[in-house]
Amino acid sequence: MTALNVLFLCTHNSARSILAEALLNDMAPGRFHAYSAGSSPRDNQQPNPLGLEVLRAAGISTEGLRSKSWDEFAAPGAPVMDLIITVCDNAAGEVCPIWPGHPATAHWGYADPSAGGGTDDEKREAFRKTLHAIHQRLELLINLPADKLEKTLLQHTARELSRAAATP
C-alpha cells in the first residue's frame, strides 16, 4: 500500500495541527505522511514553543515543523492529500480550498491548549493532554485494516473515528 497523505488543519497552524502532524509522522512512517497547515496563520506565525517542548519530551522529532497556510497545499505541485482532518472548530466551519484529488475529510475537534491561562506547568499540562487525546485517535487510525483505508471507504472511516475517542 502506498503511504496516505494526511493534512491536519487548524486556524493558525501553531498547536493542535502541528502536534497531529508530528505524532502521525512518528507513529506510522511509511504508512502515512502527515502535513499541517492553517486557514489563516498570523504573519511570522511559529509553532507554539510549549507544543514543541511537549513533543520533544515525548521523544518526537520537531525537525522541519513550521506554521504555514493551507494555500501551500492547494497550489500546483503540492502533494495530493488522501485525507484532510480539521482539528479546531474554527477551521471546520471555514470554506476550504478545492483540494486536488477530492480527498476524504473529517473533523476531530480538540480544545486549544494555548487558549488557557495559568502557570507554565498548567499550560504545559494542557498541551500534554491534547497530545495524548490526538495520540489515542491516531492509534485507531493507524491500526485500521488496509481495506478501511481504501479511498472509497476513507471518508466514512475518518468520520467514524471522530466519534471513537473522547476529546480533552
Keywords:
Rossmann fold; single chain; globular; 168 residues; alpha/beta; four-stranded parallel β-sheet
Question: Segments where pLDDT lies below 50 for 5+ residues?
Answer: none
How many strands, what sense, and barrel or not for the largest sheet? 4 strands, parallel
Total count of strands: 4
CATH class, named Alpha Beta
Shape: globular
* Strand-pairing-aware structural class: alpha/beta
**Strand arrangement, largest sheet?**
2-1-3-4
CATH topology description: Rossmann fold
* Rg, nearest Å: 15 Å
Number of helices: 6
List the helices and strands in order: EHEHHEHEHH
Task: Report the sheet-strand fraction.
Answer: 5-15%
CATH superfamily: Response regulator
Give the termini distance in whole angstroms.
Answer: 33 Å
InterPro entries: Ptyr_pPase, Ptyr_pPase_sf
Pfam families: LMWPc
Keywords: Arsenical resistance
Protein name: Protein-tyrosine-phosphatase
Fold blueprint:
Layout lengths: L3 E7 L5 H12 L4 E7 L10 H9 L13 H4 L8 E4 L2 H4 L11 E4 L12 H23 L8 H14 L4
Parallel strand pairs: 1-2, 1-3, 3-4
Describe the structure.
With about 170 residues, the chain is of the alpha/beta class. It has one domain: Response regulator (Rossmann fold, 3-Layer(aba) Sandwich). It is built from six helices and four strands. The protein has a four-stranded parallel sheet. The longest helix has 23 residues, at about 120-140. The chain starts with a strand and ends with a helix. The model has no long low-confidence stretch (mean pLDDT about 85).
